[in-house]
Amino acid sequence: WKVCIAVRLSRVRIPPSPPEWDCWNINDMTKIDLSRKKLLAIFLGFLVILVLGIITSAISFLITSQVMRNVSPQNFETAFSQQPVITFSWVLRILSFASPILGGVVVGLLVKEKGWLYGGLLGVSLKLVSLGIVLLTFLLPTSLIYGQNLPVGFGQDLAQKNILSHLINAPLVIGFTALGGWLGEKLYKKRKS
């Protein structure tokens, strides 16, 4: 596959010559080189996303446990509608959306070319790993995952909802990591020049 654009040279030739063709080979644009350096870049981007996810989960757990300590049964429904809790939840959501972009930026900075492609590859690998972890809920006993006092069929229903949500947000995560990879590549080229 070739995409060619006719480009006329800026200098004037007598007699006029036919336009010169500037061609880009699409296969070269999308070729993936999985060398050790690029696999390491994808792994480091994965680690950035993992560390940010752990930080987000820890902060969310601390906020939830603090709110639950200070709540009484009478005001349980309004406990999570307080202003500091809402502010922290928005900060955590922004961090959750930013983590794939930051992981993609790390990949783009380290790969230095085709950042969008390797960032997208990071997003695909991230979703495959997370989907694999969610699929483990079908293999492990329900009582091991959710506890002994779970209604019959509730664990499978929850696992199906988790799988569905992972499949729905997969294009967003892949798009965000590809965007981050593109931004990382542009940052590298801007810093280099």
- Main beta sheet: 2 strands, antiparallel
Shape: flat
* N-C termini distance: 31 Å
Strand/helix succession: EEHHHHHH
Query: What is the topology, as strand order, of the major beta sheet?
Result: 1-2
User: What is the β-strand count?
Assistant: 2
The averaged pLDDT comes out at 77
Number of helices: 6
Structural class: mainly alpha
Low-confidence stretches: 1-24
Chain oligomer state: single chain
Integer-rounded radius of gyration:
24 Å
Please estimate the helix content. Answer: over 70%
Percentage of β-strand residues: 5-15%
What topology emerges from the helices and strands here?
Blueprint: E1 2-7, E2 20-25, H1 26-29, H2 36-69, H3 83-111, H4 115-139, H5 142-146, H6 154-192
Helix pairs in contact: 2-3, 2-4, 3-4, 3-6, 4-6
Explain what this protein looks like in three dimensions.
Helix content is 70%, strand content 6%. The protein is flat and about 60 Å long. The chain has helices at 26-29, 36-69, 83-111, 115-139, 142-146, 154-192; strands spanning 2-7, 20-25. The protein is mainly alpha-helical. It is built from six helices and two strands; from the N terminus they run ββαααααα.
Which features would summarize this protein structure in a list?
193 residues, mainly alpha, 6% strand, disordered N terminus
Concise summary:
The chain is mainly α and 193 residues long. It has helices at 26-29, 36-69, 83-111, 115-139, 142-146, 154-192; strands at residues 2-7, 20-25. 70% of the residues lie in helices and 6% in strands.
